[in-house]
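Incident log entry.

Two folding requests arrived from the same account within the same minute. Monitoring flagged them as a possible duplicate submission, but the sequences differ. Recording both here for audit purposes.

Request one:
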Amino acid sequence: MKKLILLCIVIASCKPAPEKESKNKDYKDIHFEAVVVDTHNDILMKAVDNGIVFDQDLTGQTHSDLARWKKGGLDVQMFSVYCDGGVDNAYDYANREMDSLDAIVSRNPDKIAKVANYKEMMATVNDNKIAAMFGVEGGHMIEDDLNKLEALYNRGARYLTLTHNVAPSWATSAADETTNPDLEQKGLTDFGKQVVKRMNELGMMVDVSHVGEKTFRDVIENTTKPIIASHSSVYSLVASRRNLKDEQIKAIAKNEGVIMVNFHPGFIDSSFNDKEMAFIEKHAKEADSLMNTGMDDWYTLDYLYKKYASETEAMRPPLSMLIDHIDYIVDLVGIDYVGLGSDFDGINLTPQQLDDVTTYPLITKALIERGYNETDINKILGSNFLRVLKANEASN
């Protein structure tokens, strides 16, 4: 059955396949034999906000749908559960998004299954179905209640991003710490440390994407399990507050965690933000008109990017820039600490060639062209994350 080869890579006692074997394989063979994991996709946001039903063909409307995931060789999807920090009843909103995935799963039991742990995940993958888990993006969605944290875990959430840009009362975000340096409280409060402790006990991965540097340090000091950055890239290449500095990358590696690189052009291309600002200024009147109708800024920008496709195409960075971020992490800390967290359907633009989820194999092709062997590619595509998932499931 599919994927059995990779099980030997994940289990430490098995020897990796000789490098010479991978040289004789086409990139598609390597890709479709690997367990491919993406730790961050925002299709549930569109399902709730726009009534998107993603077991239908959504080509041209979204980056993702059920059939296209399989065409791209995706095996494991962590579905982001997200709402803005200013939304009332964020916990209820989280459950609505979870309901939308449950409905898809119930209609398509032969194609996708929600899984609770590594063992169920691999059984599902070997049945040629997509294994689904949730990742809750923003600690505000537990509403300062550990019981709600546990309830989300019981529904299938296997990571919690401690903060989004608008942070909860118990942790500061990168946005908080960079825009308001005079904050009296930075990092985790005592309750925030309780959140991390309870997540460790549950086997729920602590996600440090979006968190401030003080919160990051507090997490490293308090966690007893490997952590993840579910969708972050490299600060030394692009100085975005959402990217990880070298000392943070080293700390995650020391913690035996994993960094899942984000595909967002603004996080992988240092010239992108200036290009985007020029685009926004050029179309400011139209943007204002759309937002006056009640359309929020994210969907306004999405609309304008699609309307002026030739302009936006010129703004997209090459795929090689995404691979540069993978290379940087590998060169800094080694092959065992990097993976993929695309942010598909949570970003308006993607790198060139990565138009949607059917294009994952092009990442494998690019990695081969950079000189990565099959064993290393398997780690990047999924097994690094699987190691962290298993470590979080282990008892303290």
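Request two (distinct sequence, not a duplicate):
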Amino acid sequence: MNSFVELIHITILIITIFAGLLAVIFKKLLPAVIAASAVSLLLSLEFYLLHAPDVAIAEAAIGAGLTMAIFIFAIRGTK
């Protein structure tokens, strides 16, 4: 059971690194913001798996939700 949990942690962290690289590589702003939001959402999942649900909720709400909304409004305001 312990190795299964470690496999889940490693998988989430690899996907997080991949999404972070995508956020840097993308040329257009909207896909980069979505990839950065995915990083934040995956980190909140990792915090939850590490038994820190309060940090996970804050990361999901602020990092994935509010920050993405602010970035999208800023992108829509520019040309």
